[in-house]
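queue> pop job 88
queue> type: inverse folding (structure -> sequence)
queue> payload:
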């Protein structure tokens, strides 16, 4: 077979140069095109949690091998660890890595197509598909997804290309390279073990059978078995953000069927043909596919025709499509079924393109296998070539036009601009306030990190705190005589705290109410329901003392310092009056506020204007 391949290349020595030149131009052009999208993105949601975890941990086994909701990705965790130490939220570095990985992924796919099919112009079609499909675009705009999937999109074609070379030449170095690339993929992405499954199918269908490649399968098992042992051990022992370990839960048959159908008909097939053409925004910086129903059915019809034509004319085209379907069901669907469908629902998970972004490389390979003869393949066609063999050109043009439209529609939103403004404003605020300032540690805006998903990793101290150039005092609740506490406002600026609720004014004339060991009752303007509230008490003391604060049946204590000041405490209760007494000494109490701490919009903000706002 190797002799036949060499002979074919020798007969057409110039064609390979032309194909290579065009392919490299295509890869470069898509980098320029996608950079216009990537440069407008910023970190979002999971990204802040991963960077914060990296800053909190060393490069330990437990840190790297923690499975995050089914994902084993020590390579990605290592990148997040390094990212946090290279500027915390260094989006320029993230963009550079994204484009570098994207370039490598395009060149890796080109190598696979070149090795498998030879330097023929036809390989530009599956290559072009992978370069322009909108299937990968949402994942390309999300750093956490980039760090997982793009290394996989490099590893898969590189591993398969090396495996093909081993099947043709029998040289052990190619088998070692294939196993090495597969292991590299497993370091980053949980779907990487399917690389070895694809190698098996490719060998059985197009490379002369599997029996003669025993050394390769032993090498692959040497990679796969240790990975499986580590994966399943860590899967059931890694503690998630919910403080629970993983428990596989399957959805009901109805939910599972709807999710599979939605992911196939509303996401995979339409995006393979240039869709989804319309998007459903999730905040400002992300969107799900929202394929219109008529276009969905049209895409299914076109796909059915393409599959039928290939099966009728191309030997083993059926195996290529079965391989794609099997990969889709096992690699894309099963992980979603084991937990995410119940949380997200079949519609949200079914239109989430990041679940199938890595499938674009597999689909490019399948398109090639279904329509292009493999080098050295005997009798590749069932029937003579069609008279209308260039009929694919209008389809390719339509798919390309649809892809450009879909990507432009996705990019027609703020993307990372608003999140970047919030985060950089908050980081600048921490840099400008005096060292030692007390900052109430609240949750960041939902658009940055959604608290119900990320819990304490959505707190300002976790998201923007690591970027502070000097020490600030973070507190979850105001307690004691805190001087000039600050809190973040809706745009990420720091402002003085104001207690929003009810106010018990100081006595007329600017005086104060003496409070000693005996209880003094302060009637509220209106009764309040049971809830957690912050109490702010102005006082004048001759000596430090401690106040007992009671609201209904709930009580708390508040330390008060010497002279004029303000103290805080938190009480969970309700009623119509606040009862104060001292535990030692006496004090004189002025204005009392009871409610929720918020940013005082009437006081000056730091910085005066949001960054980029």
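queue> result:
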């Amino acid at each position: 077979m190797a002799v036949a391949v060499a002979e074919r290349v020798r007969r057409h020595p110039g064609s390979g140069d032309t194909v290579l030149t065009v392919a490299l131009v295509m890869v470069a052009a898509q980098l320029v095109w996608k950079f216009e999208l990537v440069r407008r993105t910023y970190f979002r949601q999971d990204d802040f949690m991963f960077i914060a975890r990296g800053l909190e941990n060393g490069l330990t086994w437990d840190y790297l091998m923690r499975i995050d909701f089914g994902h084993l990705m020590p390579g990605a965790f290592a990148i997040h660890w390094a990212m946090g130490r290279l500027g915390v939220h260094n989006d320029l570095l993230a963009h550079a890595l994204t484009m570098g990985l994207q370039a490598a992924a395009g060149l890796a796919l080109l190598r696979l197509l070149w090795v498998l099919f030879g330097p023929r112009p036809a390989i530009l079609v599956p290559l072009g598909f992978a370069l322009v499909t909108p299937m990968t675009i949402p994942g390309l705009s999300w750093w956490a997804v980039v760090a997982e999937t793009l290394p996989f999109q490099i590893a898969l074609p590189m591993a398969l290309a090396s495996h093909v070379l081993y099947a043709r030449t029998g040289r052990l170095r190619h088998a070692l390279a294939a196993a090495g690339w597969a292991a590299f993929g497993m370091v980053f992405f949980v779907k990487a073990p399917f690389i070895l499954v694809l190698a098996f199918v490719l060998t059985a269908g197009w490379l002369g059978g599997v029996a003669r490649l025993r050394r390769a399968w032993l090498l692959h098992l040497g990679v796969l078995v240790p990975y499986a042992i580590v994966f399943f051990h860590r899967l059931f022992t890694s503690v998630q953000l919910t403080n629970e370990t993983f428990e596989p839960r399957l959805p009901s048959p109805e939910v599972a069927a709807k999710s599979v159908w939605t992911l196939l008909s509303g996401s995979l097939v339409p995006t393979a043909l240039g869709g989804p053409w319309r998007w459903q925004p999730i905040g400002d910086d992300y969107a799900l596919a929202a394929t219109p129903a008529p276009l969905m059915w049209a895409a299914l019809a076109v796909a059915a025709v393409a599959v039928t034509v290939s099966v009728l004319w191309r030997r083993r085209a059926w195996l290529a499509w079965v391989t794609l379907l099997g990969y889709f069901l096992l690699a894309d669907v099963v992980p979603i079924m084991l937990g995410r469908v119940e949380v997200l629902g079949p519609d949200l998970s079914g239109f989430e393109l990041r679940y199938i972004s890595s499938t674009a490389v597999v689909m490019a390979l399948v398109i090639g296998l279904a329509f292009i003869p493999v080098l050295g393949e005997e009798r590749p066609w069932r029937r003579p070539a069609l008279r209308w063999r260039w009929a694919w050109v209008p389809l390719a043009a339509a798919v390309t036009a649809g892809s450009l439209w879909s990507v432009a529609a996705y990019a027609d939103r703020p993307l990372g601009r608003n999140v970047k403004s919030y985060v950089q404003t908050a980081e600048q605020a921490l840099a400008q306030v005096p060292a030692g300032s007390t900052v109430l540690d609240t949750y960041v805006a939902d658009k940055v990190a959604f608290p119900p998903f990320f819990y304490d990793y959505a707190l300002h101290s976790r998201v923007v705190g690591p970027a502070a150039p000097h020490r600030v005092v973070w507190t979850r609740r105001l307690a004691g005589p805190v001087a000039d506490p600050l809190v973040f406002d809706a745009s990420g600026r720091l402002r003085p705290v104001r207690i929003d609720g009810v106010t018990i004014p100081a006595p007329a004339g600017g005086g104060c109410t003496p409070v000693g060991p005996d209880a003094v009752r302060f009637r509220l303007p209106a009764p309040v329901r049971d809830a957690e509230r912050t109490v702010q008490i102005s006082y004048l003391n001759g000596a430090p003392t401690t106040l007992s604060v009671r609201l209904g049946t709930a009580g708390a204590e508040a330390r008060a310092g010497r002279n004029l000041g303000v103290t805080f405490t938190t009480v969970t209760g309700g009623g119509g009056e606040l009862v104060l007494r001292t535990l030692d000494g006496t004090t004189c109490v002025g204005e009392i506020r009871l409610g929720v701490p918020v940013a005082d919009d009437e006081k000056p903000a730091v910085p005066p204007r949001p960054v980029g706002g």
